[in-house]
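Continuing from the previous page...

OK, I double-checked the sequence for Glutathione peroxidase against my notes and this is the correct one:
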Amino acid sequence: MERRISQEPGANGTEILNSLKYVRPGGGFKPNFTLLEKSDVNGENEIPLYTYLKMYCPTAVDEFKNQDCTLSYHPFRTSDIRWNFEKFLINKHGQPVARYQTEYEPQQMEQDIYNLLQEDENN
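Thanks. Re-ran it with the corrected sequence; updated structure tokens here:
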């Protein structure tokens, strides 16, 4: 089996959790969310969840940057998730309503989340 180079080098959940706990950020860090299995988010092996999310919330980035070209999946699509920590906002019906690039801090989503909650209360 060919070993593919990806953004997350950990082979499984235990390795990934240990890297968070002891390396980066380290200091015994434990995430306060459920850590899911590593999966493909782009290319011919992407899981259906990400196909669905990207279909409803396309990226704001039209072109690949130089570092994106080192990725090891095919085919490349403009809707691809470009880097770790892209975020999707999903309503209570499971419909994606917004997509945020890696640089977008979760705190910056606060107003969008508030607006979505207000919408839900009114419907």
